[in-house]
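call fold target=Preprotein translocase YidC
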Amino acid sequence: MPGYKSLVTALLIAALGLPALAQETRSYTDDSGRVVDIPADPQRIVSLHDVSLTLPLLELGVIPVGSHGRTTAQGEPFIRSSAVLTGIDFNNSTIEFVGNLPADVEAIAALEPDLILTTPWQTAPVDQLATIAPTIVLDSAVRNEFAMHDVLADITGTQDRLAILKTRYDGQIAQIKRLIDTGDIRVNVIQGVDGQLAVWRTYGALGKVLRDAGFTFPARVDAIEEGQFERLSAEALPEMDADFIFVTYRTDTLETPADAIAHLEAVMPGFCDFLFACRNNQMILIPREEASAASYYGLGALAYMTISHISGRNFERKAD
């Protein structure tokens, strides 16, 4: 009964839009330019992007009451990347699944949030969400992905926790630099997508580790604007070559290393013959969840992976 459902939604929004308890607030200008009064100490957050918002909240020690998520082929909801990066998912926490795209406004309203965090990617209307609770738009395209931790730490008062995460990461980068002459090693991250090469200037967490540690990249990759990527034809393969090449595969959809290879074969059959790193067994295949998500745990795992694959190893160097 569409009419009845709309009425229930309207009543929920109207009821929850009335302030039940006085709460200290502060003014916040979000990434869409909206000025919103938000709780100074939010206790019931609904997060409407699993990787960009929920994951960093969990790393900061904040458990939202509800979150956007994905569903498996069997219809089971999950928070993308969270199980392997935080150990927390819908099935072992108090976090309620509020849908994917668009998020379920009725489910959000029923949780009685005091703050809703959303992104430009989420299609649930901001004006409708704002009738439930103060709603702010946070855009990972405006700020680099790891800057989202800083924003969320400020909103939730968890700056001390973030300082610990940053100190640990600084130590991990220092360890890479101590063990590897990174400035003398060229690396790259590539991915086969729909018959083309996808190449980022800085590929998520993996790219951050590699660049912060001081590795060099092919000139064609350095020419890409920060925060952007390009899709290239097979003819660009030689320009993508390096001493070590990293290739990712999507574990949340049950891909394996063989799938990553198949995606590159779709770009160019026999692609390995055209890449020095591949011919010399210096192409490293790793799960995309750890490699791409903005996660401090992921940064640590990638730092260790980099050391384990490159430090103390005799390897071939690509001639310029």
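return ok
Residues 1-5, 15-20 have pLDDT under 50 and may be disordered. The first strand starts at residue 25 and ends at 29.
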